[in-house]
Structure formats: C-alpha cells, structure tokens
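COMPLEX REQUEST
Ligand: zinc ion
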Amino acid sequence: MAQHGSLCRTFRYRLHPTKLQTQSLLLQQRYQCELYNAALEERIGAWAWERRSVSYFDQCRTLTGLKDFRPEVVASGITLCRGTFRRLDRAYGAFYRRVKSGESPGFPRFKSASRFDALRWEDTPGWKLNTQLRRLYLKGIGEIKANYHRPLMGVAKAITVKREGTKWWLYVSCVNVPAMPLARACSEIGIDLGVVNQIATSDGELKKGQHFGSQTQKNLARAQRQLSTKQRGSLRRRLQVEEVARLHCKIKNQRRDAAHKLSRQLVNDYDLIALEDLKITNMVRAPKGRPDPEQPGAYLPNGANQKARLNHSIHDSGWGQLVSLLSYKAASAGRTVVSVNPYYTSQTCAECLHVDAGNRISQEDFRCLSCGHYDFADINAARNILRAGRALQASACDG
Ligand SMILES: [Zn+2]
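STATUS: Structure written out below.
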C-alpha cells in the first residue's frame, strides 16, 4: 500500500527578472557551464591518467579554493556550484545505470553555453523565497519578481532557476510535504497504451491520446516551413527561429496541462491504477531482425518502422510525464499505482484467460479462439493489465 506521511514534491513558479537581472542570470549560467565542463574534464582526466574516480564530494571540496582565483563563479553561492556538480554527478550516475542494464548510452558530454539553461542551488543558503512579497532573492543577482500563484507545501530544500525560450521559471524542491489522502473511490482501473496514440481503459473507454493543441501543431508546421525560406544570418530568420521556439514551448505547456488534468481525474476516481511497464513494453515490442534467407547479411522488413512510430507516439502522448504526475498525485492521495509486465496482455482473453497469438485478429480487434469473446484489442489488454495489477497488489499485501 502507499506510504502516508511526508513526501517530496516540486513546485513551479514563473519568474519575471528585470533586464539587468536577466543579464546577471545569463552570465551566471555561462560561469556554471564553464564549471560543469571543467568538472567533467577533471573526472575524465583523473580516470585517463591515474585510473582514479572523482566523486561529487571530492569536487565540492575544491570549491573553497575557487573563491580566491575565480570569485565570479562562486558569487551566487557555494550551493549553486554544488548544484552544478550534482548535475554532472547525476549524468554520470544515469550513464552507469544504463550501462549496467545492458544499454549503450552516450558518455556525459561537454555542454555549450547556449544549451546550459538551468541554475541549481543544491541547498538552502544562497537564495530565499519571500512568499509574502512574492520575491525570490538570489545571492549576487538580487530580488526577482515571482508569480507566487499557489502556496508551497512542506519545507523548501533546493531550487532550480531555468530559462525556457525567453521565459524564466523557478522550481522549488520541497520535502516533508504532507499527504492529503482522499476517501476511498471503490473503483479500480487498468490502462493500456495503444499504438495509435490513444489509451484504452478497462472500463471500456478509448481516450484519444494527447492530440491537444493540434491547431498549435499546425501553426508550428507552418512556422517551420517559413523558417526554411529565410536567408541564413538575416534578421527575419532570427525572428522566425524565436517564433518556432515559442510554439514548441506552447505545445509543451498544453501537453503538461492535459497530463495534469488526466492524472488528477484518474487519481480522484480510482483506488488502484494499473499501467503497463513501459520499459518492458519497449523490449517486448522491439522487432527482432529477420535475416533474408536468399541474401546472406541482408534483412527482411520487420516492422521496425512501426516500432519507430510507436516510440514516436509514446513520446508524443507524453506517457512518461503522465506516469510521473500520476505517481506523485497518487502518493499524496493514498492511491496505488502499479506497473505490470505487459507480456501476453494483448494475446490473453480477458474473459476466459485463453492465451493465443491468433486471438488478436487485427491491430484493432480481439476475438477469443476458445470462448468467442470479442472486444477492442486495447480494451481487452487494459482489462488484463487491471487483473495483473490486482494480483500484484494482493501479493504485496500478503508479503
Ligand atoms: Zn476467451
């Protein structure tokens, strides 16, 4: 069952820095980018020359010396520099985790100043959020106007100040956020992520995937076409680049809003939410190479294109974002979200549990070869996911 009590959460607020503050923020991003790259170089060098690995804490220890010969880098606080080191440390951690699980990830890379868009204060000194005056004080930068549109909960531990296009955002990470359990809904749901950008529920509903902002999508496509007609280096081109970035940002926000709404609705209505484990789904659905018997070394078509399309639609529908929003809302409300192994969920009859690849008569339709049960394929899968989720929950309660 879900743990009640204190939780971690991040709250997001819009910042309105003045022109001067914007310049200071951009400058500080340049310094932190430099620091990030230097820290990466140190790690690579130590390993290449001495087979010595450098930890986050090793790097933090060098900061006291930095005060004397690069004061501008530590001007906004040691905690900011620690945040930059922590970011590198996370990149390393993610890299080794993925190597361990058998993937072939790219090694952490040096960052260019234009893409280094976030400042992270890893701990409390160096910044202060005044919620009454709606101001964020940043050491070395000043007091920035913040749109404090909803109250913080819990204890603010760390912040990230991020530039997205021309806008600035504040992310406040809080701990000890009190849980707000909801009354029992007496209802449970299984959800299947369909191939054609939709989700199917065990209640028999097909929800169209997040095709939200399709008008914005059209505008974006048009803006991108226009971009290609503009001459390189011209003012018009630069303005068009900004327009494209603005539309990208708008689509992202529309998706986030939609994911917030859907996750809120699911958490309000159901005690147990069972989803397929996307990591396993990707492996199960990954097409294997089919060697061509007539041409050694060549491969027959194997639906890799369809797989690419599936990945695209997963990306498109913001599935990962939905899952993470769902998880924290569920934790706060005392609801349970379980990820189940999706193996056979599309071939199993939800009525009689008969498993047969032939049950699935087409992409959309399912007809059981044993009992004749008919349903939309994705809805049948969603019902199997719910059953698997219930079994998982029951075994967790027993154990
Ligand atoms: Zn059946």
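REMARKS: The pocket of zinc ion is lined by residues 349, 351-352, 354, 368, 370-371, 373 (CB under 6 Å). The two ends are 11 Å apart (CA to CA).
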